[in-house]
Amino acid sequence: MLIVRNVVLLAILAIICYTDIKRMEIDNEPILIGLAFIIPFSLMGFNDVDIFSSIYGFLLGGVAFAVLTIWGMGGGDVKLMALIGFFVGWRDIATIMVFSFIIGAILGIIYVFVCKKDFKQYIPFGPPIAVATIVVVLFGGLL
Asked: Which domain holds residue 18?
């Protein structure tokens, strides 16, 4: 059943990456669809993460990124991290947060130098979150 969870998560991340790159916006619909899937999936015991770890992951991902809205993090990124936290639990969401900032910094520097933009310009943060999530989901046991 873990493969089902990962396929749903990957589909949601793909949609979110597309909209975030295209419009600098993360829609609510993929987030709500993800929650509508993962909550009953977890309650039925199909998720490899227990329900309490999922709830803590949801809170940790959401609250940590909500604090960052002060410095320009978007609300869609907050909702996305909360959703991913429910999917993967509190241990993996902490790792995903660290990796997403590292990946985001690398992509931001590339964006500035390749696209000739300045450092004050916003970049979509959904793709770095998605890449970090995929890395942790696929290789989390090795990290």
From this structure: 2-142
